[in-house]
Amino acid sequence: MTLVERFLQKPRRSSFLFGPRGTGKTTWLRQVFGDVPTLDLLDAETYRSYVARPERLREWLAAQGRPAWVVIDEVQRVPALLDVVHQIMEQKTGVQFIMTGSSARKLRRAGVNLLAGRASVLTLHPFMAAELGDAFDLDAALAYGLVPVVHGAEERREALAAYIGVYLEQEVKAEALVRNVGDFSRFIESVSFSHGACLNVAEVARECQINRNTARSYVSVLEDLLLGFTVPVFARRAKRILVGHPKFYYFDAGVFRSARPHGPLDRAEEIAGAALEGLVAQHLRAWLAYRRDGEARLFYWRTKSGSEVDFVVYGEDVFTAIEVKNARQIHRQDVRSLRAFREDYPEAEVCLTYRGRERLVVDGVLCIPCEEFLRSLDPRGRKVIGNI
Fold first, then answer.
1. 220 and 103 in contact (C-beta within 8 Å)?
2. Secondary structure E strands in the chain
3. Using the 8-state DSSP alphabet, how is residue 192 labeled?
4. What does the pLDDT read at residue 285?
5. How far is CA 205 from CA 227, 251, 257, 272, in A?
6. 8 Å CB contact between 238 and 213
7. Nearest residue to 97 via CA among 15, 11, 27, 12
8. Which residues pair with residue 230 across a beta bridge?
9. What are 36-70's pLDDT values in tens digits?
10. Does 147 lie in the same domain as 86?
11. Domain boundary residue among 91, 123, 155?
12. Are residues 181 and 267 in the same domain?
């Protein structure tokens, strides 16, 4: 299989590298750093050795001959190692650490402060359309997602079906992150109905027959495992009454499809629309994570009266509102919310992405085919729609 060059850039100093399982952290490390000393905490013998005596890291490092870079894989399995890493960094030995992980939950629960800012935090996301180039297929991305371990599989459907099961067994159950794996498994299905929608924890709790606090803790587990994320309301200089609930998304459109139950009462277009919105969301998150010039965040906008804009990207050098429509044709009413947003925020760029093939301007709003929009998202550019 052809290696894909990722947009994530090599760090200049010690860093944490987080990312869901299967997003290609190990492959990226080999591409960027080559063959460097690696401590693999997924190896059972290595794990037992360092759980018993984390200070053994000093002895291991001494045997490596003072390398410039060292990788500690799945560092969250032995949080106490970070105390030793911190001490080594304080001694200015010249060794830089890359510490990978598919979850930050155990680090937070152990009270670890991520080295007090002495290490930067990087995140590796599923493939972006611009990374794949000609290999990007919108329909396939919506059906199977863009997680590298699934994208590169011969049988994508089977690989995707097994993906969440691997998390349940190797992360949730093995690490005892929840008391009842069965309840959590039902929650994974139930919260999929909130993908791309306002997250009402009380409703999800009733659906799963668990209490609200448990449901809220399960949302935190999904976020800590990097399987899901929430998008807050954009309320800066608000001129209208806005809703308060965040929106929820699974981190990948294929994972959403796998978690979402299908039945006679489920409309195909409803699931397809949520998958498309999630695919745009995961691209915007990756774009924000990989760019180096300026801080920016992802929001959405929704008023109590029902006007909604799916995404607002806001930062020092970017302010863009984006609406996503799973439709082949665009009508004037489809851009109504974007026009309302632009009335309140004339400084913002606005655009609509849809499933058609032509670029249009409807009531002053640029409408872009979704595949073209996704292919144009390149973190080396400064604007969300700057390459269009």
1. no
2. 15-18, 38-40, 69-73, 96-101, 120-123, 197-198, 228-231, 247-250, 296-302, 308-315, 318-324, 349-354, 360-362, 365-369
3. G
4. 96
5. 19, 21, 21, 25
6. no
7. 15
8. 248
9. 999 999 899 999 999 999 999 999 999 988 889 99
10. no
11. 123
12. yes
Q: Which of 123, 150, 171 is the last residue of a domain?
A: 123
Q: Which domain holds residue 105?
A: 15-123
End-to-end CA distance of the chain: 30
Q: Residue with structure tokens 């970070």?
A: 82
Per the CB < 8 A criterion, the answer to whether 375 and 368 are in contact is: no
- Report the amino acid identity of residue 315: G
Burial of 232 (0-12, 13-18, 19+ CB in 10 A): middle
2 belongs to a structural domain: no
Cβ neighbors of 182 (< 8 A, separation 6 or more) are none
Length of the chain: 388
Which region holds residue 79: left if phi is over 0, alpha if psi is between -120 and 50, else beta? alpha
Burial class (CB in 10 A: 0-12, 13-18, 19+), 277: buried
Distance CA 267, CA 308 (A): 22
For range 179-201, the mean pLDDT? 91
Question: For the residues of 43-74, what is the DSSP string, one character each?
Answer: SHHHHHHHHH-TTHHHHHHHHTTS-SEEEEET
Indicate the pTM of the whole model: 0.92
Task: Give the neighbor-by-neighbor strand order of the sheet with 228-231.
Answer: 197-198, 247-250, 228-231
